[in-house]
Amino acid sequence: MNPIPTITLGNGDRVPVLGQGTWNMGESAARAADEVRALQQGIDLGMTLIDTAEMYANGGAEKVVGRAIAGRRDQVYLVSKVLPFNASRQGTIKACEASLKRMAVERIDLYLLHWRGTPPLSATIDAMETLIEQGKIGAWGVSNLDNDDMAELLEQDNGHHVQVNQVLYNLSRRGIEFDLQPYCTEQNVAIMAYSPIEQGRILKEAALAAIARRHGATPAQVALAWTLRRPGVISIPKASSLQHVQDNRASLELALSATDFAELDKAFPPPKKRRPLEML
């Protein structure tokens, strides 16, 4: 099995292009042990970027992550997010400190604004820069920001320190390809794709199934491989079972052909005009 390719963020951090998401984790005590094991196996397989958020299960996902990375914090690139209604200057700092406590860590590598709320972007950025100075985070980014919001962000003092825009991106949600993805690439902001298989809803599409059969793969593996076809994209699928983790990792061994891509474009057409940013 080949090593997972990496991309270099604007601040020089190198991160794997395939990581692990934790949305819907931490909601059941009965499933927590399986979720911990799945994350740990993902780390073993090189998927060392783990994405979580204070919102997920009201902090429950962060607690699962904390259990999974205990004793191996130095192996993991840790990403979490602050809710928009906490994203004032003092609110962001307080939320970050609570996340650190739930995960039992001293630092979050990349801290994101989950989506835009009422606090001004300048206040959130100021808080992020303060957290960097305090050593509580290594870098910051955003999530669910469309072109206009990104442009406004980049006009702020220190706005150019943004490293990532985490957005909904998969075969059925290709709107960012028209303008947001090119803009972020131009500004050296990586795209992090959440829900890269649309929470399973696209997996019965005939074209996807046919391509999977040709490659001896699963439709989910084809969908994941597709998200990673362009430079500058990090994909963060969730897996709560060991087999699912292994399947996600194996998607990197898929080499999709020009014919495969053409068939996927026919089944899931690329955007021909601007679309508002979609969210889940």
Q: Can you summarize this structure?
A:
By secondary structure, this protein is an alpha/beta fold.
In terms of DSSP E residues, the strand content is 15-25%
> What sort of overall outline do the alpha carbons produce when their principal axes are compared?
globular
SSE string, helix = H, strand = E?
EEEHEHEHEHEHEHEHHEHH
Tell me the structural class.
Answer: alpha/beta
Provide the spatial order of strands within the biggest beta sheet.
3-4-5-6-7-8-9-10
Task: Return Rg in Å.
Answer: 18 Å
Report the helical percentage: 25-40%
Protein traits:
8-stranded parallel β-sheet; 10 helices; 280 residues; globular
Account of the protein in words:
The chain is of the alpha/beta class and 280 residues long. The protein is built from ten helices and ten strands. The strands form two sheets. It has an eight-stranded parallel sheet with strand order 3-4-5-6-7-8-9-10, covered by helices on one side. Helix 3 (89-103) links the parallel strand 5 and strand 6. Helix 1 (29-44) crosses helix 2, helix 1 (29-44) packs parallel to helix 9 (242-250) and helix 7 (206-215) packs antiparallel against helix 10. The longest helix is centred in the N-terminal third of the chain and has 16 residues, at 29-44. The mean pLDDT is 96.
